[in-house]
């Protein structure tokens, strides 16, 4: 049997190509923790706004760098060849592996500049936290033993996109860790995990074929669907905990976002698969934004 070469999409305008490669739909997972963490600092009565802006730059730049790094690493390994989701630059031939690697390094450099400014103001030990974030971004799919291929991606996402990003954003203004900041980091982290879970559920067949042992591959699709819903439910449970810790009913405002959570949860439980989960991923991203905005508003009030 003669195999036909896999068709590649025609590259669009240069700007559009790199914007697509940065995967803008994933950016709420990095922006929301900063907003919520800054609001937690506001609840304690003190926000240094330039530091909050620098933290947002760091978070967004690390997210973009991580997306490019994943594109590069998966592309050179060939694990994106059977991908169902949005186009990847290297696998599709829209950009060379070297160019994507340089884009990742450039985005990491932007994060590094803003991070050094924060460390100079709030404590040089933050450089170690930043280095750990860089390493987590690169080695998710990079290096000889990528942890994303071993089913540990969800753990690292919860730690870095939940605890570190949220508590860290509060810390740069307060220069101390508060119980409220830690508690509100949990729902943020769980929703970020939900984004990764539905992403990996979408790609479970292709990942299994390519040897990428994500948590979805290890658990199987039925259990992964339940895990996704558990992440959403857990986020609301910890919103209630946060209201108790913060002593304010305003922190319960995110409960108003429940209708936004119901639709993607139903679709996942009903067996949505493959490309149908792209819409679920978008709906989960909207939930991250809505719940995060309501949580930040409740903390600020």
Brief account:
The protein is mostly helical.
Estimate the strand proportion: under 5%
- Assembly type: single chain
Structural class: mainly alpha
* Span between termini: 67 Å
Work out the number of β strands: 0
Keywords:
13 helices, globular, mainly alpha, 301 residues
Question: What does the model show?
Answer:
Helix 2 runs parallel beside helix 13 and helix 11 (221-246) runs antiparallel to helix 12 (258-269). This protein starts with 13 loop residues before the first helix and ends with a helix. It has helices spanning 14-21, 28-43, 49-77, 89-92, 97-122, 126-139, 153-174, 179-202, 204-210, 215-219, 221-246, 258-269, 276-300. It has 301 residues and is mostly helical. The model is unreliable at 1-11 (pLDDT under 50). 50% of the residues are buried. It has one domain (27-300). The chain has 13 helices and no strands. 72% of the residues lie in helices and 0% in strands.
């Amino acid at each position: 049997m003669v195999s036909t070469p896999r068709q590649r999409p025609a590259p669009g305008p240069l700007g559009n190509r790199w914007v697509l490669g940065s995967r803008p739909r994933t950016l709420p997972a990095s922006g929301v923790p900063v907003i919520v963490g800054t609001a937690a600092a506001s609840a304690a009565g003190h926000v240094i706004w330039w530091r909050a802006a620098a933290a947002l730059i760091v978070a967004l730049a690390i997210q973009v760098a991580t997306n490019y790094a994943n594109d590069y690493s998966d592309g050179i390994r060939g694990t994106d060849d059977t991908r169902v989701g949005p186009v990847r630059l290297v696998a599709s031939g829209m950009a060379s592996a070297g160019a994507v690697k340089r884009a990742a390094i450039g985005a990491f450099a932007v994060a590094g500049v803003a991070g050094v400014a924060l460390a100079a103001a709030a404590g040089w030990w933050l450089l170690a936290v930043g280095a750990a974030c860089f390493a987590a971004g690169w080695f998710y799919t990079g290096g000889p033993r990528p942890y994303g291929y071993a089913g540990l991606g969800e753990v690292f996402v919860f730690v870095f996109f939940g605890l570190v990003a949220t508590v860290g954003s509060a810390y740069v203004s307060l220069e101390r860790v508060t119980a409220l900041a830690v508690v509100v980091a949990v729902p943020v982290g769980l929703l970020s995990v939900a984004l990764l879970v539905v992403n990996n559920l979408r790609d479970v067949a292709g990942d299994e074929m390519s040897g990428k042992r994500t948590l979805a591959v290890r658990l199987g699709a039925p259990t992964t669907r339940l895990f996704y819903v558990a992440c959403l439910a857990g986020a609301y449970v910890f919103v209630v905990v946060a209201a108790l810790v913060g002593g304010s009913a305003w922190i319960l405002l995110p409960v108003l976002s429940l209708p936004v959570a119901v639709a993607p949860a139903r679709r996942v439980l009903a067996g949505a698969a493959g490309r149908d989960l792209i819409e679920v991923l978008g709906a989960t991203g909207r939930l991250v934004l809505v719940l995060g905005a309501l949580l930040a508003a409740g903390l600020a009030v």
